[in-house]
Amino acid sequence: MIQNDIELKTSQERIAYFQDLLLQLRVKASAEEFSLVSSGYRAEIEKMQEEVLEYLTRHVSEPIQVTKA
């Protein structure tokens, strides 16, 4: 869970990095290789985007909800 603006920036940079990887893999990897690796990157991007949106839509005065796994 993102707790501050520094972590937000880091998550946004990671999302961009994984998107760039997918962009390159679309061209360089075979169709079989792409299908094997793209789903993992997509899942990670979706997870990080959800965390970014959670952070951005929580007012600064609201406490951070800590969930135990």
> Count of DSSP E strands?
0
Number of helices: 2
Portion in strands = under 5%
Order of helices and strands: HH
pLDDT averaged residue by residue: 93
Shape verdict:
elongated
Number of spatially distinct domains: 1
Rounded Rg = 15 Å
Percent of residues in helical segments? Answer: over 70%
Q: Spans with pLDDT under 50 lasting ≥5 residues? A: none
Biggest sheet details: none
Protein structure class = mainly alpha
Distance between the termini: 12 Å
Give the helices and strands, then pairings.
Elements: H1 5-28, H2 31-56
Describe the structure.
- This protein is mainly alpha-helical and 69 residues long.
- The protein has one domain (5-56).
- Helices cover 72% and strands 0% of the residues.
- It is built from 2 helices and no strands.
- The chain has helices at residues 5-28, 31-56.
- The longest helix is centred in the middle third of the chain and has 26 residues, at 31-56.
- The model has no long low-confidence stretch (mean pLDDT 93).
Observed structural traits:
69 residues, mainly alpha
Q: What is the structure about, briefly put?
A:
By secondary structure, the protein is mostly helical.
